Amino acid sequence: MFLYKQEWGAIIIEKQTKILTSSPEDIREAGKIIAEGGIVAFPTETVYGLGASALNGNAVKKIFAAKGRPSDNPLIVHIADKKQISEIAEEITPAAEKLINAFMPGPFTIILKKKQYIPDEVTAGLDTVGIRFPENETAAALIKAAGVPVAAPSANLSGKPSPTRAKHVKDDMTGRADAIIDGGDCGVGVESTIVDASGETPVILRPGGITLEDLRAVIPSARVDEHVLKAVSDDEKPKCPGMKYTHYSPDADVIVVEGERSAVRAEINRLISENRNKTIGVLTMYESAYDDAVILSAGKDNKEYAKNLFAALREFDALGADMIFAEFRETDGYGLAVKNRLYRAAGNNVIHV
Ligand code: TXA
Ligand code: MG
Asked: Measuring CA to CA, which residue among 321, 265, 262, 267 is closest to residue 293?
């Protein structure tokens, strides 16, 4: 049975969503759905993706409708064989070659000049394309089964935290995707590192599963785009269109409290006492205890923080939090990715103590 509903200014069909597993038969079925123009949510090592054939502009449009995603925000094209890169990219620079050899497959996306035939729906009209070769076996098997490169954003409703568990995808995409492959929890927890390698010096547009240190070990001149930690103002046109949109927002207001353990604890206690009438959540990386707050652990280091962050933001919503205070201190290579996602979730509402 199909139900029609009006949303995001467009009519979308509420679909019967099949729940599939990572078994070979189910992956074959999911691949067929994509080959025939449908959309399938699937696990990757970073976050779940929502995929369609990257060669079918109409199928790609269904992703934008299902997510409520602004049409000027391009999608990453997923491959399962490095040979596909030269079929999609017009030019592979020497720096790109090094990065591809070092980081693919893995939590890494490379931006290169695109071949003309890649539909504008995928690249939002840009002359570049993001290419990613996921390490996750289910993802790679699905792409192979589809027989086409797979365009896929994260499988969340636009603006919400990216899904790192099958439950998150089912919450957001039931009735919207043709199928969801339940592949368990994602290991990295934040999205891939996006590197623009279309010019001379590689630039990180989004930090993620591959750290700046990892990149610099291969290309010492690699740098980080200024907008990674800074809000984009109305008159700016960021290199990565996704930078200008609200991201990772739970229903609660998020405030990041950054600094040494004891000072962070004192500040959060002060904030709690100032907001006695509200339901408070605290995401702790210091195993702190707070009275009158729901406490979730971010883990013992930033790698664990990355893995837990999006799930924690969703859980605070489920627990009815009005405000979330997130403890943070940049301690290692994953710190930049965590900081970027936290700052975005908080709308840059950060207290340094
Ligand atoms: O780990 C990941 O990358 C996940 C999994 C599913 O692979 N995907 C993901 O996709 O995070 P999405 O659509 O949620 O984020 C992709 C980001 C967006 O901010 C978009 O603006 C940017 O990549 N992007 C895509 N193509 C681009 C291009 N040609 N130039 C600059 N930025 C691009
Ligand atoms: Mg996303």
From this structure: 321
